[in-house]
Each structure stands twice: as C-alpha cells, then as structure tokens.
Amino acid sequence: MEKIIVDKTTSESLDDYWEYTRIVGDDDGGKLFTPAQYEQYKKRVVPQRMSNRLYVSFGVPGEAMECKLVGPETQCFCAHRFKQHKTDFEVDACGGPLALPCQVKGCRCTAYHYVALNGSQPARCRCKHTARDHSEAGGHPCNVCTSCSGFKSPWTCGCGKPSHAHQTLVETRQQRQAVGKPVGREVPYRAMGGLTGFSSLADGYLRLAPHPGPVTQPASEPRRQEEDDMAYFERRYQERVSSLYYLS
Ligand SMILES: [Zn+2]
Ligand SMILES: [Zn+2]
Ligand SMILES: [Zn+2]
Ligand SMILES: [Zn+2]
Ligand SMILES: [Zn+2]
After folding, report:
1. Ligand nearest to the CA of 131
2. Range with lowest mean pLDDT among 6-20, 38-52, 53-67, 179-193
3. Which of the two ends of the chain, N or C, has the fewest CB atoms closer than 10 A to its terminal CB?
4. Residue 47 domain-assigned?
5. What's the pTM?
6. Range of the domain at 108
7. Residues with Cβ within 5 Å of ion ligand 3?
8. Is residue 227 part of a domain?
C-alpha cells in the first residue's frame, strides 16, 4: 500500500484552510477573503457568534433529552444543510420564536426544520410521499397529492415517542443553562447548531445507554460527514482552549 506523506507546511496550510471554511463558510461569496478581509470579518463576526449563539436540536418539548443534535451538515426539510441557513445574529435573541431561514437563493424555507431519518433516508409522510414531495414553505403541504394538509411522519423515534411529538428546538445559551443543558465551549465557528462537544457524536438516546460501546462507523454518508466535523471541532477545541488567537 502506498503511503501518502504530507509535509508540515502543506498540512498546516490545509489546516488553516479548514479553519477558514469553518469560520467563514459561504460568507465570502465564493471568493477567498484577503488576509486583511479575513481579520476584519473575524473581528466583526466572532464576538457576536460567541455571545449570541443559537443551539439547535430535535427533541420532545419539555423533555431533557435531545434526540438529535443538529450540526453544520445536518439536512433541513428543504434539503439544504444547516450551515446554509441564517445562523449569525447581531443581537442576542431574547425570547420569542427563533426562526433560522434558508439563505439559498430561490428556497422558500423560512425556518430550519429537521426531518427525522429512517435509516439514511428522510422518513416518509403518512401520505406516503417523501419530504421532497412536500413544499419547503411553512406548513409543508404535499405537492403530489391533495389529501395531505402538511407533512406528518408516522415514524417513531429511538426515544419511543412519535416523530410528530418532536420539534426542532432553537435555544439561546441562557435558555439552555436555565434547564441544565450543556452549552459547550464558546467557539468561533459558524453554524455549530447543537454540537457542544465530543459526546455530541451520538444521538441522545445512545448517549444515555448504560454501556456505550466504541463509536462505530455509521452507515449513511451524511452522518459520516457530521462525525468528521465533530472530530475536527473537538480537536480545535482542545488546541484553542487557552489561545484566543483570532482576536489578537
Ligand atoms: Zn433551503
Ligand atoms: Zn431549510
Ligand atoms: Zn404528506
Ligand atoms: Zn402526499
Ligand atoms: Zn425522540
């Protein structure tokens, strides 16, 4: 087997590039910021990101357990990723319903809405049509049949409760702290959703299992992508704990 050797300089610049994409995402409009623009961007966005972060998860309102923690790559009902939705806010959200609209041009999604997966596919509606067959606009009526008034899945979550008892929860740090939920470390990355640490790897009900075995390779590609993200974030957490270099 051939060994791939990456010299330190290459791996460092690769690492810088990953760091850049995690912080900037699509905010550069597809054209890399100059170092000066990048510094300016970080000065403006990072402090607000760290103080106004919104945590996004999927669970049953009132229950402490979170069935799914939404990460940057987690798909919305509209089929776009969480990171493609508006996640940065200039002011602290104080109460009221918090909606994270999709920012992809032409998409009518007004609020990030996690759709439970059945295996690797989004669960179907009771009208038998897929999430894709339903409108991404509020209420999610079916585009294919006339009998469906809005997407409702008969799927049962790993927590034992039906899918429709669940909601996509958007919470502030204060709201989570008030009920004792983890808030993780403050991070400069965009669209972190509900990811708060390495334990975020597993879905809520797996985390609560009495003897969690080693983390096994997931079957589906989207999950894998999220796990890669998580491993990356965890590494960055550890490396950056005491060095807030991006503000200096
Ligand atoms: Zn969308
Ligand atoms: Zn969406
Ligand atoms: Zn339907
Ligand atoms: Zn239908
Ligand atoms: Zn559940």
Report:
1. 3
2. 6-20
3. N
4. yes
5. 0.76
6. 9-207+219-241
7. 125, 127, 142, 148
8. yes
Q: At what angle do helices 221-240 and 8-24 cross, to 10 degrees?
A: 110
Query: What is the distance between the alpha carbons of residues 37 and 29, in angstroms, rounded to a whole number?
Result: 13
Q: Enumerate residues with CB within 5 Å of ligand 1 (an ion).
A: 78, 80, 102, 104, 107, 109
Closest ligand to 161 CA?
5
Query: Whole-angstrom Cα distance, residue 32 to residue 15?
Result: 15
Q: Six-digit token pair at 189?
A: 């990355």
pLDDT tens digit sequence for 44-88: 999 988 888 899 999 998 887 889 999 998 999 999 999 999 999
Adjacent-strand bridge partners of 162: 156
- The closest ligand to the CA of 74 turns out to be 2
What's the structural domain count of the chain?
A: 1
**Per-residue model confidence as pLDDT tens digits over 92-110:** 666 556 789 999 999 999 9
pLDDT of the residue at 242: 38
- Residue 66 confidence (pLDDT): 87
Phi-psi region of 119 (alpha: psi -120 to 50; beta: other; left: phi over 0): left
In a domain, 52, yes or no: yes
CA of 232 to the centre of ligand 3 (A): 37
* Residue 169 CA to ligand 5 centre (angstroms): 12
CA of 76 to the centre of ligand 4 (A): 18
- For residue 212, being part of any structural domain is answered with no
